[in-house]
Design brief:
By secondary structure, this protein is mostly beta strands. It is built from 3 helices and 21 strands. A hairpin with a 2-residue loop joins β7 and β8. It is elongated, with a radius of gyration of 19 Å.
Length: 234
């Protein structure tokens, strides 16, 4: 199980197991991690954990949240990341054994690593391999039916035409440090959410905001310069 180690001036104060989906950090006593310091906002940040993956989000705090010295709004946590909240630090320690078995980010998201890697350097125009897209965009996108399977197909780059089935609860796409998004499989459909990076994913030519957006059949997604198509499977 992943954990956070709270410290100040090199002195370890507390160890927190990430054993719940949502863990709040702030000055108010109702937070899961309370830090009673004026530099910390009442509700400062939140860590969301899904399977073996954890995400940090700043809750519009007054003094902001840093990860490895850089200000963040949303951040996909990686092993040994250092979260800074004023004079306090939280070190993220990933459960690498669980990650190897269950994490889409480290093992199953072939789009980020392996044969379907999405390198941010590939700022390519779409290839001719867009048969699904050219057919689907001519009609109104179809909403997923509960329990219906789905996949994504790469439309450009050296892996154009390859597909990835969205069988896991969470599939992570993109390149850490540049642009990362996740597609979540929920009982009532599939949703895409921006996680990391200054630029937001584009769906059907429109940039997303910070909110989760439902995906429809034949939606075209662009992340880190790579275009892909979301489609439902019979």
């Amino acid at each position: 199980m992943a954990k956070l180690i709270l410290s100040m001036d090199g002195l370890v104060l507390k160890e927190i197991q990430l054993n719940q989906e949502r863990l709040t950090i702030g000055r108010k006593p109702q937070n899961d991690i309370q830090i009673d310091n004026l530099a910390i906002s009442g509700e400062h940040a939140v860590v969301v954990t899904i399977l073996a993956d954890s995400f940090l989000e700043d809750l519009n705090s007054t003094n902001g949240t840093l990860v490895n010295g850089q200000p963040i709004k949303k951040h996909f946590l990686r092993n040994n990341d250092i979260i800074e909240l004023g004079k306090y630090k939280l070190k993220y320690m990933a459960d690498l054994q669980a990650g190897a078995a269950a994490s889409d980010f480290e093992r199953n998201a072939a789009i980020r690593s392996g044969s379907l890697k999405l390198p941010s350097e590939l700022q390519l125009a779409p290839t001719e391999n867009m048969s699904r897209s050219s057919i689907g965009m001519a009609s109104q996108p179809k909403a997923p039916v509960p329990g219906m399977a789905a996949a994504i197909q790469l439309l450009n780059g050296p892996n154009a035409g390859k597909e990835l089935d969205l069988t896991k609860t969470l599939t992570t796409l993109g390149k850490p440090g540049l642009q990362v998004a996740v597609i979540a499989k929920r009982p009532h459909g599939y949703f895409i959410t921006h996680v990391e990076g200054r630029q937001f994913p584009i769906v059907n030519g429109k940039a997303l905001d910070a909110q989760a957006v439902p995906l429809g059949d034949h939606d075209v997604i662009e992340i880190a310069g790579i275009k892909m198509e979301f489609f439902l499977k019979a």
